[in-house]
Write a structure and sequence with these properties.
seven-stranded mixed sheet, globular, 27% strand
């Protein structure tokens, strides 16, 4: 994906923007009681640490060794289980989670990977749990594998895997890049109650 050689600079970028600003849309969907959460594509660990600070049992999935190293250095005292794994199969993850978070990850998957990956996300979501993701729109940085993925396509794909969209939004870029914007999506298993919990 091109993240390894830039790990330190990217981590500094990520850490400049707090979890509450990036994921304000998500706060009401966080489990009200301590639960299991997985941050897929955890990067520097900012989001995983924020979830752990809220009392959740957190698994941070990050396939880039350099970013895992940075995350462990920055948040070594946080109760986070770091796992070397990747979409679409995520073979090392076990059990289900009350929150499945993918921040700036989904658009790195090609069409086939997105189909398989969404099916896996549905398997990982506990009854009553939710999947939350952000999608980046705009020209990709040089050297990055990135695809144009719309919110509408993602919602339709999720429905085929038994996940229904319960929240959707658009935000400008948190780093103020003029040609970049973001979609925010929250899914729940079909048939789940659709009220957000206070985080």
């Amino acid at each position: 994906m091109g993240y390894g050689k830039d790990a330190e600079a990217l981590a500094q970028q990520y850490e400049e923007v707090p979890f509450e600003r990036v994921h304000g849309h998500l706060l009401r969907w966080l489990p009200s009681a301590a639960g299991r959460a997985v941050d897929i594509g955890a990067g520097s660990g900012r989001d995983a640490a924020a979830l752990a600070a809220r009392g959740h049992e957190v698994v941070a999935v990050e396939p880039t060794p350099e970013l895992r190293q940075v995350g462990r250095r920055l948040y070594g005292d946080a109760p986070i289980d770091w796992v070397d794994d990747a979409l679409p199969a995520l073979p090392r993850l076990r059990g289900t989670f009350d929150l499945v978070l993918l921040s700036a990850v989904w658009m790195h998957l090609d069409e086939r990977e997105r189909v398989d990956g969404m099916r896996r996300l549905a398997e990982l979501t506990a009854p009553g749990g939710c999947v939350a993701m952000t999608l980046r729109h705009g020209p990709p940085p040089a050297g990055r594998r990135m695809f144009a993925v719309t919110a509408a396509e993602t919602i339709a794909l999720a429905e085929r895997s038994g996940l229904v969209a319960v929240d959707q939004g658009e935000t400008p870029d948190w780093l103020a890049r003029p040609h970049v914007r973001w979609s925010t999506l929250v899914f729940r298993q079909q048939g789940s109650t659709v009220d957000g919990s206070a985080g």
